[in-house]
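S1.2 Input.
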Amino acid sequence: MPEAHMVTLRALRERNRRLQRTSRLIAVQSTADIREAINLMQVYDISQLPVLDGERIVGSLDERALMERLMEADFCLWGAVTAFMQPPLPALDETAGVEKALDLLRHGAPGVIVTRAGTPVGIVTPADFIAFKVYSGSLDYQI
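S1.3 Output.
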């Protein structure tokens, strides 16, 4: 297996960190108001947001699903995040190779939660793989 195929999710996140506004996981607690969650998505320019209960991932918010809800005639944009959340994003340990995350993304996951010893520490999205490829040139995967 070529060396580029040995890239871990940790390496991918560290390489892209300088391009991001923050290296911490941007998430919202399940008890938060949906407007708080949407504000986080706007401030950090992200399209999905993990929903946590403490440190446990219980769901996710996706801008596409929120947009669809906005189009409903009786939709109101207030209430707890849990009323709007989707199932949790898939999760992989940060020591996993990027090929596992790429496979999940290719099969429809909008993002992959990166964990360290079971605790969520970040998220990788197709945009992260694109940035990694463009700025490091060492990822031999077709995205």
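S1.4 Remarks. Strands lie at 28-29, 48-53, 56-62, 91-93, 112-116, 119-124.
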